[in-house]
Specification:
The strands form five sheets. Strands 12, 13, 14, 15, 16, 17, 18, 19 and 20 form a nine-stranded mixed sheet that branches. Strands 2, 21, 22, 23 and 24 form a five-stranded antiparallel sheet that branches. Strands 7, 8, 9, 10 and 11 form a five-stranded antiparallel sheet that branches. This protein has one helix and 25 strands. A hairpin with a 3-residue loop joins strand 18 and strand 19. The chain has 392 residues and is mainly beta. The N terminus is likely disordered. The termini are far apart.
Length: 392
């Protein structure tokens, strides 16, 4: 509700006329570039029209749909001895009663649903993290909901990663949404075990924080399963300032020290510096150099084995979801183009998000979550990755 009022008041009439982009086929000789793709909206992930409907969990309006994976050691397969991969979907501000146009009902700053890898071709939410008493989707970590905009209006998740035993969720504390440029307090993490009696009980970590005005307020873990950097011991994360008007920067941290900010390194490469050497990295986040030029917000990055590229999807100002590709997280990234805007959405609604994961990439299709503003729903969508190329 809060974001809807501010977005429409401040951004109405600012949208550019969409440029038509046709789909293409991967030629034998080609230079990879993010062009020629349009997202296909498939079905809503939440609400009464979702399959299964989410109204039984008092989820009628929510956004984002950030995807992360984990393996629960309590669920080892008895036939093979392997531990199956599971997916979680993280949502932002979540509301209940759809008949209430202002979406004030049962306001939760964030919620989470589960899906199994078997559902990856056509992602379906199997269950929700719920309150035991009433079955409603429960909040992971609540914001202050200060509608006077003096302290904090909400805590919004931006990305997540599992270290094997715990799920780490990055979030930002927002004071007020101001169009595409948001007033934020800081960014930090919440952590929960994925197994045991205290599974999925999230706790805020007071020892890690990025202050207001930092290059790193909104994060995107580089989902790197099968990528060339897999196994090098680092988790790579792109970050942006709060909102959708800033540039993207790159950080890395040892996978065994993710929750110790002392070990974080920020990419300051370029100018002939080899990206894999220590000279390209600094402990000072203010020295980070731009790797993907703005406006960039609500970023998601995944390795795609079919085109052998990292694919970044993100929201730009004026309700446009863009895609760019690169051979490495530090770039160079291709010029981005629109995969979704008001010319492609159901009923011409404002669109944002675009969260994917390697487990949601099936053949030539990359599945992703896209959010629609006026109906405040999250949809499953897909993009043909063979259309992310142009002839050389």
């Amino acid at each position: 509700m809060l974001k809807y009022i501010l977005f429409t008041n401040l951004c109405s009439g600012l949208f550019c006329q969409a440029t038509q982009i046709t789909s293409g086929i991967l030629p034998e000789d080609s230079t990879l570039s993010a062009i020629g793709a349009r997202a296909q909206f498939l079905y809503p992930l939440i609400g009464s029209e979702a399959h299964p409907p989410t109204t039984d969990h008092d989820v009628q309006g929510c956004d984002l749909g950030i995807v992360a994976s984990y393996s629960n050691p309590d669920n080892k397969s008895t036939s093979t001895g392997t531990i199956p991969l599971h997916l979680v979907y993280l949502f932002g501000d979540t509301f209940g009663d759809a008949s209430n146009a202002t979406y004030k009902s049962d306001w939760r700053s964030n919620t989470m649903a589960f899906a199994s890898k078997e559902d990856s071709q056509h992602p379906v939410l199997n269950s929700w993290l719920t309150n035991r008493k009433n079955g409603n989707a429960r909040v992971l970590f609540q914001g202050a909901h200060d509608v006077s905009y003096q302290t904090e209006v909400s805590k919004i998740p931006t990305t997540a990663w599992c270290n094997g035993t715990h799920m780490i969720v990055w979030y930002f504390s927002v004071r007020q949404f101001l169009g595409d440029n948001w007033d934020c307090n800081n960014a930090s993490v919440a952590v929960a075990s994925v197994a045991g009696s205290s599974a999925w009980e999230f706790h805020l970590n007071p020892h890690i924080s990025w202050s207001s005005g930092s290059f790193f307020q909104m994060f995107a873990v580089v989902h790197c399963e099968g990528c060339p950097l897999a196994g090098d011991g680092y988790l790579y994360i792109l970050g942006t300032p709060c909102g959708r008007e800033g540039n993207a920067y790159l950080a890395r941290v040892s996978t065994s020290h993710v929750l110790n900010q002392h070990y974080w390194q920020y990419y300051r490469g370029g100018n002939g510096v080899e990206p894999t050497t220590s000279q390209a990295w600094s402990s000072d986040s203010t020295s980070a150099t731009v790797v993907l030029q703005g406006g960039v917000g609500e970023l998601s990055v995944s390795w795609n084995p079919l085109i052998e590229r990292y694919v970044a999807t993100y929201t730009a100002p004026k309700s446009q979801v863009l895609v760019a590709t690169a051979e490495a997280p530090w770039g160079p990234w291709t010029q981005p183009v629109v995969i979704a805007d008001t010319s492609t959405t159901p009923e011409g609604q404002l669109v944002y998000g675009g969260f994917s994961h390697p487990a949601l990439q099936t053949g030539e299709w990359m599945y992703l979550s896209l959010s629609l503003w006026e109906s405040y729903t999250t949809w499953a969508a897909r993009v043909n990755v063979t259309s992310l190329v142009v002839p050389s």
